[in-house]
Structure formats: C-alpha cells, structure tokens
Design a protein that fits this description.
CATH topology of the largest domain in chain A: Rossmann fold
Largest interface: A-B, 33 and 33 residues
Strand order of the largest sheet of chain A: 2-1-3-4-5-6
CATH superfamily of the largest domain in chain A: Response regulator
Distance between the termini of chain A: 47 Å
Oligomer: homodimer
Helix content of chain A: 40-55%
CATH class of the largest domain in chain A: Alpha Beta
Chain lengths: 217, 217
DNA sequence: CACCAATTGGGCCTTCCGACCTATTCAGGA
DNA sequence: TCCTGAATAGGTCGGAAGGCCCAATTGGTG
C-alpha cells in the first residue's frame, strides 16, 4: 500500500527536490501546491494520505492551511516543514493538528521516515524540537485548553507593548492603543528592560527581534 | 568536460535535492558546505568550477563568502541562491562578484542552465530580477572603479552612528566612540531620521536592520 | 492562607531626545 | 568657480524617556 503524498511549498526548487526524493522513497506524489489556498483545495480533491506542508507560504500560511485541512475532515495527515525551529510556530502547528513538524535541516531520509510514520498515525518531529514538542503534547494531554505559548520570557502584556514600540509607537501612543496610562507603559518597559537585559527601548526591541518575540513590519 | 560543482546551503534538505538534481543534470557535485566559512574553505580545497551558494547561511553569509571566494583567486564562479528577490542583496551579490543570482522559485532546470552558463563565463539571473540586474551591471561597466557600495541611503558616517546605536550605545557613548561631540551625533541622527523615514532611534535602527544597513549583534 | 507575579497606577526627578535655528570647513561635481 | 553634500559644532526648548520610590487589585500556586 503506497502512501499518497501531497507537497505544499512555495519554492519550486524545494518542491521538485522533494518530489524526486519522495518518489524514490516509494511514495506516490499525487500533487503539488505552491500556496496555502491551493494546498487546501488539492487536499480536498485528492485526499492524500499525507501532506508535506511548508510553514511559510503565500495566501494562507502552512499552519492555517493545516488547520483547515484537519477541520475539513478529509483525513489527511499533515507534516509541517519549516526553515527555522520556532517554538511559537511549533506550538501553533501542534494545536492546528499537525502530525509532524520538521525543519528543513533534516535529511531526505528523515523526511521520508517522518512521512511514513505520519501515514501510520504516528507523530514525528525534528530531533532538536523533540523536547519542546513533548512538553507541548503533554500539556495538550493533561489540560486540553489553550495555553498562551509556554516559556514566555516577557509577559503577554509586555509583548504587546514591545510590538507596538517596534511598530513605531511612542509611549503615549502605546498607552492610547492599550487604553492604559503612560505610567503603566513605562512600568512594563522597565520590567522588559530587566528581563531582556536592555537599557532603553531601542535595545529592548532589537533583543526582542533577535529572540523572535516581535516581528519587524 | 563536466562542470565541477560545490553546493553551499545550510538546509540539508535543499542540499540533497540540489545534489540529486545537479548530478542528474550532468554536473559533478564535488562537495557540500553548510555554512559560509565551510564554503570558503571547500572552495579553496576543491577549486570547483561553480559554487551554488545560498545567501542566508550561518557563520558567514553567502554574499560575504562569495566576496572572499572571488578575492581568493581560486577562479570559481559563484551563483547565488536566495529565498527572496531582494534588490539590496542582489546589488551586494553583484558587487561581490557573483556570476548569477537566482531565487529558489526557479525550477531545477533553470538552476542547471544557470550553472552551465556560469561555468561558461556568462552571468545569469532570475527573470524577475533581470531588469535591476542589468541596471546594476551597467553601473559596474560604466564606471568600473571600486565605489564604497554605491546607492548608499545613509552616508558612511551615519552608518557608523547607526551601527553603534544598534550595538547599544547612547548618544554620549557614540560621540565618545567616534571622537565627535554629542551635537554632531544628534545631527547625524536627525539626518538619518529623514532618510529612513523614522522619527526616533528605535525606528531608525529597525529600518536599518530591515534594509540590511546594520547587523544585529 | 500566604505568597508571588502580572497588571494597573501615582509622584518626582534627571537626563535624554528630537525639532528648529545657525555656522564653518572641506571635498567633489556641474 | 560656484554650489551641493558631508561632517563638524553650537544654542534653545518642550516633550519623552528612564530611574526610583510607592501601592492596589487580581489570579494562581504552594
């Protein structure tokens, strides 16, 4: 029984490489999608056993596409592929129902094994993500409610403040945006400076960018 | 006469895909590097005809690695691979002496052709980058002297100020570092704000990071 | 229950920052 | 040669930023 596989990645080079590797590994590559919307559509039309889905794609990102495919009930197992080992995205992907989460640092052999295991109902992950993955799964098992992405360095509110500053807001503007006083914003910032080992907002935002806490534009 | 090819990309999946594709296309893949430093080292040891080099790599980015390979005089032609069609990076790559600049949206066939053409001394580029590439080449042809990375948005001095700020310096510290008065630093900053459409140092540094003017640690 | 972290807010103070004004020197292009 | 741009430096001024004190509430955790 060959595994029917759908590839979803916006980079043709990677798709072609995967198609060859996966075909050689004995999988039946039934289709390729170059964005999230196409992936969802093809998943519905082709009902593949497994979908190898890139996280970053145009139109609809991989995690959202994964969610929609799982929710649509076609029964496809989704293995996420990502460029970077991002804890946040991993957590999102697991919550979306992904059956695997691999970085593109993996070998084709590892990918092939992951696809095979996903097809058999197992959940697979990159070795370097094993621990956090297990933590996430444990949390899902123990208390099935959504947890605000564990191990946060700064609090939720502080993260909001940081993002607004990164978006170009001044202290008064952040206060207005969040409906709190300027003093509270300053307090949050002072707390952030301690946690991120920064001494001003510039360093705090840069550190947050390095740590992936905030996104730049 | 087969073309001897070196692959440099930090993503093993992509490297393996490329190795297969390029081998099948008749190239002799003599080595693989997973970061910039390794790429430079292997280029020296193996003297490949062509190096397929990713732009974003650990240790030493592809553009810098390209520059060093070209400067080392091993005679290898460097074809850059990139995730995104970035004008700035393209310009840097061309200045660094790259023989080609392709996005990973290209097909393996296109990559193979690009490698072949690069080996023959031609310069190749992604279709969507053709125009800007030609403009860049024209500039290089018209005045062939070394210009300190022309089209600079901010001046050399302003760039130094920006980098120091990004490194965590305050205005007095920047002034001390550059042996100028605080007032001059402020003047530079005011000029930077205009040029980068920023209203404070935080925004200026973030914009500079986006534009690749400064590096974050 | 007691404690802790998060979130909210206050006051006071010093320093920094950015806007706006001017000015000199010097190198390079029209 | 004149003019522009870069780099240098000064002043003033209002607002922003950051340090350092403080306190109230809320929601968990031990």
């Amino acid at each position: 029984m060959t595994v029917r596989l759908l590839l979803a990645d916006d980079h043709r080079l990677l798709r072609e490489g995967l198609r060859r590797s996966m075909s050689d590994a004995g999988f039946d590559v039934v289709g390729e999608a170059c964005d999230g919307v196409e992936a969802i559509q093809l998943a519905g039309e082709l009902s593949p056993d497994v979908i190898l889905m890139d996280v970053t794609m145009p139109n609809c990102d991989g995690v959202e596409a994964c969610r929609q495919v799982i929710d649509s009930g076609v029964g496809s197992r989704v293995v996420m592929l990502t460029m970077h080992a991002d804890q946040e995205v991993l957590a999102d992907a697991i919550r979306a129902g992904a059956a695997g989460y691999l970085t593109k640092d993996c070998s084709t052999r590892e990918i092939a094994e992951a696809v095979r295991m996903a097809a058999e109902g197992d959940t697979v992950l990159s070795p370097q993500l094993a621990r956090s993955m297990l933590d996430e799964v444990r949390k899902l098992d123990s208390h099935a409610e959504v947890d605000p992405s564990q191990e946060r360095v700064v609090s939720k509110r502080e993260e909001e403040v940081l993002q607004l500053i990164a978006d170009g807001c001044s202290t008064p503007e952040v206060a207005a945006q969040l409906y709190i006083s300027q003093k509270t914003v300053k307090n949050h910032l002072a707390s952030i400076y301690q946690k991120l080992d920064a001494r001003d907002r510039t360093q705090a935002v840069l550190q947050a960018v390095r740590m992936g806490i905030v996104s730049l534009s």
